[in-house]
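Deliverable D2.4 — example input (structure tokens):
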């Protein structure tokens, strides 16, 4: 069996030293290294060129999205490329990942996308970094979607039309959904893949990221919410129920009778239920996160009514 030709597409914006570490982890493992920059002003473009990467600078007059950046990088790959490793610029690729992933793909011809374990590099730096690390820890086996870091066959990726560039977030699950509908499989290996540096140290960063997730849930449900996929319908409904509908109903009812405030006890009851499954820390932020998620979902529908994208939600993970 011939060795597949592997290239890499890295995307980033003002990643600084994290980008250098990312590019260094790929050098010698791939044929061509493409870096797509989304308006950095920290010297990332020059640094990437010095490390031998082919640099694509996105037009700053157009809204930045991770999907747009990835498509720009994919467009630079030649037709002789078999596999492409997609990586976010704040990640370091494990030295054994590509060989393990390639072997699995060669043994499983129905698989178009493969990913592994992404870990936070500094999970103890903050509760928010720790929550990210838990988010990345998903079961191995056949999956519905990958994340931003994944090894993909280029041909089916192009046949599917690439990433949907207008998505602010959630572009990987949306792409994987289309690949699965075309008959391909997505797999997650029980193997180390990348180290991610979220650098999420403040509550405001977590709030913005969670609100962005709510936006993505609502957009995904609008695009692919019909059966059988029901893509992100449940996530959107949970966010709107716990983060918006219940608080509003209780507040409105309390104007009639103060006894309505007793209904607020549903929240500690829900917290207790969640804690048994995921622990107290994760449960608290899961329930608290329903408010920014609901706001993000409403944000999407409001701007959909207006006929435009918000375009201001930071797309970095």
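Example output (designed residues):
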């Amino acid at each position: 069996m011939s060795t597949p030709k592997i290239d890499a597409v890295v995307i980033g914006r003002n990643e600084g030293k994290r980008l250098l570490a990312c590019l260094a982890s790929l050098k010698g493992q791939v044929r061509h290294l493409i870096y797509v920059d989304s308006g950095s002003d920290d010297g990332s473009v020059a640094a990437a060129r010095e490390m031998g990467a082919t640099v694509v600078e996105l037009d700053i007059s157009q809204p930045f999205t991770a999907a747009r950046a990835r498509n720009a990088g994919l467009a630079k790959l030649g037709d002789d490329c078999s596999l492409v490793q997609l990586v976010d610029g704040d990640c370091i690729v494990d030295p054994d990942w590509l060989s393990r992933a390639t072997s699995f793909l060669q043994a499983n011809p129905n698989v178009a996308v493969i990913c592994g374990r992404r870990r936070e590099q500094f999970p103890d730096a903050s509760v928010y970094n720790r929550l990210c690390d838990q988010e990345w820890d998903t079961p191995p086996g056949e999956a519905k979607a990958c994340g931003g870091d994944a090894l993909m066959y280029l041909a089916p990726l192009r046949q599917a039309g690439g990433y949907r560039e207008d998505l602010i977030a959630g572009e990987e699950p949306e792409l994987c959904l289309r690949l699965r509908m075309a008959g391909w499989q997505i797999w997650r290996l029980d193997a180390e893949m990348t180290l991610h540096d979220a650098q999420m140290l403040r509550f405001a960063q977590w709030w913005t990221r969670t609100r962005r997730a709510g936006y993505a849930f609502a957009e995904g449900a609008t695009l692919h919410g019909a059966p059988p996929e029901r893509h992100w319908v449940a996530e959107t409904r949970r966010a709107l129920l716990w983060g918006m509908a219940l608080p509003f109903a209780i507040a409105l009812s309390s104007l009639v009778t103060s006894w309505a405030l007793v209904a607020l006890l549903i929240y500690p009851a829900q917290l207790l239920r969640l804690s048994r499954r995921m622990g107290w820390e994760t449960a608290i932020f899961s329930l608290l996160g329903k408010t920014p998620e609901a706001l993000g979902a409403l944000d999407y529908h409001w701007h959909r009514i207006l006929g435009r994208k918000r375009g201001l939600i930071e797309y970095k993970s």
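The beta strands are 6-12, 33-37, 54-57, 83-88, 91-93, 111-120, 141-143, 150-153, 185-196.
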